[in-house]
Amino acid sequence: MRVSLIRYTPEPELAIAAAARLCYAEIGASQLVEKLTPTQVERLLRQVISSGHHSVLEHASFTFAVDGISRATSHQLVRHRLASFSQQSQRYVSYKSPDYVVPPTVAADADLKQIFDQAVLAAFEQYRKLIEAGILAEDARYLLPNATTTRLAMTMNARELMHVCSIRLCTRAQWEIRELFERVRDEVTKVAPIIGSALQIKCITLGYCDERETCGIRPLREDIL
Ligand SMILES: Cc1cc2nc3c(=O)[nH]c(=O)nc-3n(C[C@H](O)[C@H](O)[C@H](O)COP(=O)(O)OP(=O)(O)OC[C@H]3O[C@@H](n4cnc5c(N)ncnc54)[C@H](O)[C@@H]3O)c2cc1C
């Protein structure tokens, strides 16, 4: 899996701070971006994050290139409705060679990995035969497994990133999408460390676990209230 931040709002934390300060200022955002000091930016950012006044976080957006995740994971990812996605088409792009993700639980056992590899490679082989026989990629792809890799571009604003990280970094989320959002968080932290520090599992922010069972990072809500 490769995740890289390819574009983002210039000075994202300043853009958010100026928008937040604007609500209570007698001057406009264009003057505020010139006047706000780094200390003021940090204070404003931490204030909007902790107070829950998250709409101003929508002023900063981040675009990522994501390569080599499975279609099983991309299917989970694109459920997030307040993000934008462009995904490599299996209709217009056919696979020249097998490219797939092996879950670590399978990779850890040589015998099981062999079963997995054989099944996936057989599917890819039959896929190629259909393509060579003239079947369009859009129909041949029905044979391909969930393990097949994909590429996509993904844009989220900082508010949506906070929401998605809160549930996809949770140990209840599947390993591959968790790994994806750990990488997303690392990329954001490099250019916007205050926003990056707010990309947390929901239990870290809440102080308790609101699921039915806790993994142990935080106690269940009913055990502390
Ligand atoms: C651990 C885990 C297990 C899951 N298991 C399943 C499963 O078994 N089956 C399944 O189908 N899905 C499953 N999902 C996906 C889940 O149901 C959601 O589809 C996914 O989390 C995206 O929706 P969202 O509300 O979190 O946020 P987004 O779509 O990212 O939207 C962000 C926020 O915007 C607001 N919003 C967005 N759209 C609307 C709207 N139409 N109306 C009102 N408010 C809106 C909400 O506040 C929402 O939280 C799972 C997710 C997780 C994290």
Question: How is this structure best summarized?
Answer:
The protein is 50% helix and 13% strand.
> What strand order characterises the main sheet?
1-2-4-3
Hetero groups in this structure are: flavin-adenine dinucleotide
Tell me the Rg in angstroms: 22 Å
Number of strands: 4
Global geometry: globular
Question: What number of structural domains do the residues give?
Answer: 2
Helical residue percent? 40-55%
- Which whole number gives the mean pLDDT? 96
Distance between the termini: 40 Å
Find the CATH topology of the largest domain: Gyrase A, domain 2
What order do the helices and strands follow? Answer: EHHHEHEHHHEHHHHH
Strand content: 5-15%
Secondary-structure arrangement, i.e. CATH architecture of the largest domain: 2-Layer Sandwich
Derived from helix and strand composition plus strand pairing, the structural class reads alpha+beta
CATH class of the largest domain: Alpha Beta
Uncertain residue segments: none
Described by strand count, sense and barrel closure, the largest sheet is: 4 strands, antiparallel
Number of helices: 12
